[in-house]
Amino acid sequence: MPSCSLHPLPYRTDPGDYFQRIRQAPGAVLLDAGRPSAKRGRYDLMSAWPLAELAPAHDESANAFLQRLRGALHSLGNAEAPSAMELPFVGGLIGYLSYDFGRRLEALPAHSVDDLALQDARFGLYAWALISDHQLGTSHLLFHPALPQAERQRLLALFEAPSREDQASFRLSQPFQADIDEDHYRQAIERIQQYILAGDCYQVNFAQRFQAPCGGDPWAAYLALRQACPTPFSGFQNLGDGNAILSLSPERFLKVSEGQVETRPIKGTRRRGVDAVDDQAQAEELLASRKDRAENLMIVDLLRNDLGRSCRIGSVKVPELFALESYPNVHHLVSCVTAELAPGKDALDLIAGSFPGGSITGAPKIRAMQIIDELEPSRRGLYCGSLLYLDVRGEMDSSIAIRSLLVKDGKVSCWGGGGIVADSAWQAEYQESVTKVKVLLETLERL
Fold first, then answer.
1. What is the DSSP letter of 49?
2. 386: buried, middle or exposed (CB in 10 Å: 19+, 13-18, 0-12)?
3. Distance CA 271, CA 346 (A)
């Protein structure tokens, strides 16, 4: 099998210096580990100028679109990493699936308004990437064998040149406003609890949207957000015409490596404390909360079932349950589910059987999604979708697009939500939905 070529560059803990050189290029995309502040992620991955861009047609089914993605990978051609090199990506697809891509997988009503008009998915097919490995302290340009020599030379010259000062700016012309008021929020929670008591469902993730008019360069907004809230599954995707995805997600959706599958659902949240004593008390309260543990376990069971559709019978395991992870604004309760892909199944089969992630829908999933569509006034778009890469070897990693913003058509949108169960108190849930994104909203309001 042909091997990719690697060209070393000066190592950067922060990908900003390299990415700002390509951020306005067609298809520019960055998957960002949040270093040096965030500690869990290993790789930064960036690229631009894709060989092809793929988005689903208006009436195209999910499975037909996923098959087109397989065809695009096949057209690029197989390749492997240079011997003894551990690399996440050797050429392939990078992009997003919106939450509403799930409508192509399941029959859902259409009560909510699609006022953002975001494509349900958008991927580029990339024959090169700049990869920084924070475990080894290296940065490399990777070239797939299909990339022409002239393009290799152009990219080498671009990234080896001295960096230039960047004067990008971003601003809001008004503060963020919620789409719904507290009374509407309370009514929605009460309706969900009526469904739960009637036996329709066990848990529903309900979210509200915050919006503000904006102008300037979304990259400047991303840099400010990255500094305020570094997370291991961050990302920036240039959508063209001044539009962009800005994601500060702490949550992995699905990872596939050599046929081994991992998902790390988050369910259970507390604010960070005002001092060390209060912070420790918040963390201990979360770890001891029977309600939060029960919510987390519901989602673990849902994901075990989802993974079972594409994974070898008997391979689904839960090696980690109710672990504490702490971020600048919140503590989270996180679990881990692992499995092994079944013979004849690939990462896109796994997506088809598991999307959208159960941690941001509720249980059972389809009924929860129907209730979300009934009670949330507008479509989620990017929120609770996924940013991901999938390379020609079948290696994949993906996020749940929470703590994420969409800059589109002169507005920036941000969403906050949480899982609602029978004994949820609406006031506490409302406050949690604000707490989760408060640092993001306030950071942009200060620019």
1. S
2. buried
3. 38
pLDDT tens digits for range 308-340: 999 999 999 999 999 999 888 889 999 999 999
d(CA 403, CA 210): 12
- At 64-85, the pLDDT tens digits run 999 999 999 999 999 999 988 8
Which residues make Cβ contacts (< 8 Å) with residue 3, sequence separation at least 6?
A: 79, 80, 81, 82, 83, 145
Half-sphere exposure of 340 (CA within 13 A, CB side): 5
251 is catalytic: yes
Give the sign of the dihedral formed by CA 359, CA 365, CA 370, CA 374: negative
Residues in the chain, how many?
447
Average pLDDT, the chain: 96
From the candidates 251, 262, 376, 395, give the one annotated as an active-site residue: 251
Catalytic residue among 267, 345, 365, 436: 267
User: What pLDDT digit, counting tens, does each position of 296-308 carry?
Assistant: 998 999 999 999 9
Q: Which two tokens stand for residue 124?
A: 């580029």
CB 100 within 8 A of CB 108: no
Measure Cα distances from 332 to 123, 286, 296 in Å.
30, 8, 10
User: From CA 413, how far away is CA 378, in angstroms rounded?
Assistant: 11
* H/E segment holding residue 266: strand 266-271
| DSSP codes of every residue in 354-420 | HPSPGGGTEESHHHHHHHHHHHSSB--TTTT-EEEEEETTS-EEEE---SEEEEETTEEEEEEEEEE
Could you tell me which of 218, 42, 237 has the C-alpha nearest to residue 122? 237
Both tokens of 416, joined, read 């906050």
Residue-level pLDDT at 210: 98
Pick from 217, 130, 137, 152: nearest CA to 447: 217
Strand pairing class (266-271; 252-257)? unpaired
Q: CA–CA separation, 144 vs 174, rounded Å?
A: 45
